[in-house]
Amino acid sequence: MEMTLLKVHGSMNTFYMFEGEEHEDYAQLAIQLSSIDQDIDGILVILPSTIAHAKMRVFNTDGSEASMCGNGLRCVARFVCERDGVTEAVIETMKASLHVKKEETLNDKIETYAVEISPISFALNSLPMSYLSNSEWLHKPLPFISEEIPFSAVSVPNPHLIGIVPAALQKDTSHQQKWAHYFNEENNYFSDGVNVSYVTPIENGIFVRTYERGVGFTNACGTAMTASALISCLAGLVPYGDVTVYNPGGMVKCAVSKTEDTIRLQLTGNATYLSVVKFNWSSSGENSCILSTEPLDEQTDYKEFIEQVTTLSSQFV
Ligand SMILES: N[C@@H](CCC[C@H](N)C(=O)O)C(=O)O
């Protein structure tokens, strides 16, 4: 089957995105595409929805399906808004229908979208995480990892384990690599695996590096950055409101607001189109191949933006 794919990124978290139908073997397509193009972190499928403007499904490079993808949702938001001629929309995801909207550009010429991140839960069984008989784990060391790093577990709704680390542990990624790898193999704590982020407060925000479940280290993970902003606010490391979050692929803004019984999260960042790719997909994989690639010209502007904004975080990249 010949398909037209858009190669897109949010903070350099990179995907092939396309309109599809239900009941195709997208897990296998994700595995095939990521073995052909090792730049990508997964695929985004835009489907018809009976309750929203569209439905998004996201598959990691290992073929596992995730309940949410913050960076991907911004790209889907752009596609759906441009397709339907609107500036706001609702996108159905695995666990919730989420509000998305076109935003003021983060910088000249950068297509920018804001997306709701929800539902949020600190209940360990929502990840799931199992540790002794705890029902939540917030800003406390996990002694089998380290007595110094405060970890928090949260689902938004995909699962995140977030550690607040000093600059030295942010620069040397081997500690994070070891534990993230361990938690994403057969283990006693996370039966479905977990996205693991190390967060370091910097001058005007936080820096977040994420090892994604089903992928490995990524340039950025949108849900992880938003969950990290929330944990940093709860821990008193940054004030509530708009948190500037740097990552190896760029910078986003995460709005965190909290009343007595409600937390609201919104992720704002780029939705950049890289190229239009014609792909021949055969289910056996034998004849699957890229037929043509037509580069688009948005990445030059994105690179300029990154050069301007990432001086503070360059020590970690
Ligand atoms: N990159 C995404 C998250 C993708 C899914 C994740 N690997 C999982 O399995 O939960 C993001 O931007 O949120």
From TrEMBL:
Give residue numbers for the site Could be important to modulate the pK values of the two catalytic cysteine residues.
H160, E212
Its keywords, alphabetically, are: Amino-acid biosynthesis, Cytoplasm, Isomerase, Lysine biosynthesis
Q: Can you say where in the cell this protein is located?
A: Cytoplasm
* Binding residues annotated for substrate, in chain numbering: N13, N60, G70, N71, N158, N195, E212, R213, G222, T223
Q: In which pathway does it act?
A: Amino-acid biosynthesis; L-lysine biosynthesis via DAP pathway; DL-2,6-diaminopimelate from LL-2,6-diaminopimelate: step 1/1
Cross-referenced Pfam families: DAP_epimerase
Gene3D superfamilies in UniProt: Diaminopimelate Epimerase, Chain A, domain 1
Q: What is its EC number?
A: 5.1.1.7
Which reaction does this chain catalyze? (2S,6S)-2,6-diaminopimelate = meso-2,6-diaminopimelate
Question: Where, by residue number, is the active site?
Answer: C69, C69 (proton donor), C221 (proton acceptor)
Q: Which domain of life is it from?
A: Bacteria
InterPro entries xrefs: DAP_epimerase_AS, DAP_epimerase_DapF
Which family is this protein grouped under?
Belongs to the diaminopimelate epimerase family.
How does it associate, per the subunit comment?
Homodimer.
Described by its record, this protein's role is as follows: Catalyzes the stereoinversion of LL-2,6-diaminopimelate (L,L-DAP) to meso-diaminopimelate (meso-DAP), a precursor of L-lysine and an essential component of the bacterial peptidoglycan.
Could you tell me what this protein is called? Diaminopimelate epimerase
Species for this entry: Planococcus kocurii
